[in-house]
Amino acid sequence: MKTLRLLVPAVLAVSSVVPSLAQTAGQTGPIAEKYKADADKIIAAAMKDTEGYETLAYLTDHIGKRLSGSDSLLKALNWGAETMKKAGFQNVSIQEAMVPHWVRGQEEASIAAPFSKPLHMLGLGMSVGTPAEGITAPIIFIPDLAALANTPDDQIKGKIVVFNPGWHGYGIGSLHRTTGPSRAAAKGAVAVLVRSATGLAMQTPHTGTLTYLPGMPKVPAAAITVEDALLLERLAKEGPVQVHLKMEAHMEADQKAGNVVGEIPGSEHPEQVVVLGGHIDSWDVGQGAMDDGGGIISCFEAVNLIHKLGLKPKRTIRVVFWVNEENGGAGGRAYRDALGDKVRNHVAAIESDGGVERPVGIGYTVMGGGPASGSAARRQAGASANPAAAMAAMAAMGAPQRDLDESKLTPEEKKSWDTIKQIASLLQPIGADSVSPAGGGSDIGPIVAAGVPSLSPRTVGEHYFDWHHTEADTLDKVDPEEFRKNIALLGVLSYVLADMDGQLVGHTSAAPVE
Questions:
Q1: In this predicted structure, what is the pLDDT of residue 23?
Q2: What is the distance between the alpha carbons of residues 317 and 437, in angstroms, rounded to a whole number?
Q3: Any catalytic annotation for residue 325?
Q4: Of 215, 252, 471, 484, which sits 20 to 30 A from 30 (CA to CA)?
Q5: d(Cα 253, Cα 22) in Å, to the nearest integer?
Q6: What is the pLDDT of residue 369?
Q7: Residue range 194-253, pLDDT digits in tens
Q8: Among the residues of 260-321, which ranges form H helices?
Q9: pLDDT at residue 511, as a whole number
């Protein structure tokens, strides 16, 4: 297993950044000078655009949640293809990918002793269910994976493990959600409840996928709210606590779905591609507005505006609505497999999967040495035999990014970094002119591992984890003005990358892809 490099943190699914710790571009140069007029046109068009938000509203309100394997996802795929065709995109298709079909079913949890009280819960994606009558068992409170490893098996056997690692960023929270159930089951636990991966206590449970580790038992697992996790922690310190858990969750046969693909062919080098997008699937709660309807529609509308403005970049700009990011990554793999050797013709990959709050700049993975995406890094950490080391790696992922030490860049990396700073400087009118040394996402992970340069918008990230994977991820959370700024950023970034003479440097990765 490759050691996780911590100098340049692997990118989380969310592309948020602390603005004061990112570098403000302020960079002039030939690229900034050449594209200033076109960038201003794109920004002006984006800031008065209303069609993008209307398109997002249709997706969220009329189609809604889009879990892999569901009828609503298939409806969204067909709608996405028709929307691209109506906008004048070319070579529109639904690129086939088989996706898992996990069904939540009815579910409930409650405290059975020392008193009776319902718990706010959401089963974790891909979890197995309980027996029809449910499971009633004593709980054992375990703060985190390191404590689990140090707890004797006989203290865990036959019990429901309750994890509450606190809120130390999404990396730590998701690590307990994804691998905690298998690790607890290996020590005899009959079920797992994990604190939702959020810092906001509003009695709102957050779902998300789990990963059953090879060779370990499968037990049902659910997320509970911050408040209920703290309640169970307090009660466990007072004395014995019993919880009842009932889940109908189960897997059905894989379903045919696909990535929605459309493009504006390049005027001089149509074989060379700048690809941008996000994931069209969502969890089976909320509307999938921030995660990731806003991402895919901001990418679509950015390219739609480039087309409407009559701008004709030299290279092809391709928009992809990837499928199955939430619970499998089948879309990203299918896209990479379909490319074969032509992956070398991809000159840049941009993923928007961190919400569409106010953008502050561009993330670009200028240095190599880490996993191809945040989820690849989490999978590496989750498979680690050392829980403490895995938690440290995830904590590093969530830490504020340090300024890049440019003296450590190769000449090719330095040239690319300067290019990105020049592009970012064009975004000063919308306050998005900072640059950060890490960018990307899960869907583009497979092609990034093959050497495609990896980028993403960087946002303030103030509320993304308050809403994501919950019933609260609805259109009203998307501010139209901030949404338009995301469209502007994506439009300028993709256009310049597709038209400029040079190319950014990318890095191959030996890390496992999605």
A1: 63
A2: 23
A3: yes
A4: 484
A5: 45
A6: 66
A7: 999 999 999 999 999 999 999 999 999 999 999 999 999 999 999 999 999 999 999 999
A8: 294-308
A9: 46
Task: List Cβ neighbours of 151 (8 Å cut-off, separation of 6 or more).
Answer: 140, 142, 187
404 confidence band (pLDDT: 50, 70, 90): confident
What tokens does 386 get? 């050392």
State CA 187 to chain mean position distance: 31
pLDDT in tens, 252-305: 999 999 999 999 999 999 999 999 999 999 999 999 999 999 999 999 999 999
What number is the average pLDDT over the span 81-97? 98
- Cβ proximity of 245 and 109 under 8 Å: yes
d(CA 279, CA 218): 28
The residue with tokens 């106010």 is: 358
Contact yes or no for 397/385 (Cβ under 8 A): no
Q: pLDDT at residue 137 above 70?
A: yes
CA atoms of 22 and 402, how far apart (whole Å): 7
Mean pLDDT of the chain: 91
* Per-residue pLDDT tens over the stretch 415-424: 999 999 999 9
* 407: its two tokens: 């003296």
Q: Provide DSSP, 174-237.
A: HHHHHHHHHHHHHTT-SEEEEE-S-S--SS-----B--PPTTS----EEEE-HHHHHHHHHHHH
State how far the Cα of 24 lies from the Cα of 35, in Å rounded to an integer.
19
CA distances from residue 409 to 117, 231, 246, 416, 505 in whole angstroms, order as listed: 57, 49, 54, 10, 11
CA distance 2 to 365: 18
CA–chain centroid gap for 100, Å, is: 18
Q: At residue 185, does pLDDT exceed 50?
A: yes
Provide the pLDDT for residue 1.
35
Is this structure's pTM higher than 0.90? Answer: yes
Output the six-digit token pair for 236.
């466990």
For residues 5 and 403, the model is more confident at 403
Of 288, 276, 300, the residue nearest 351 (C-alpha): 276
The secondary structure element, H or E, covering residue 153 is helix 153-156
Please state, in angstroms and as integers, the Cα–Cα distance from residue 74 to each residue in 121, 250, 261, 317, following that order: 27, 20, 14, 25
- Among 301, 325, 351, 514, the active-site one is 325
Using CA of residue 431, residue 298, residue 296, residue 178, what is the dihedral sign? positive
Residue 400: CB atoms within 10 A of its CB come to 10
Output the CA torsion sign for 46, 47, 48, 52.
Answer: positive
Sign of CA dihedral 493, 496, 502, 503: positive
Rounded CA-CA distance 77/259 in Å is 8
Tell me the CA distances in angstroms from 477 to 46, 72, 431, 461, 482, one per residue in order.
Answer: 19, 21, 21, 13, 11
Structure tokens belonging to residue 377:
């890094």
What per-residue confidence (pLDDT) applies to 389? 58
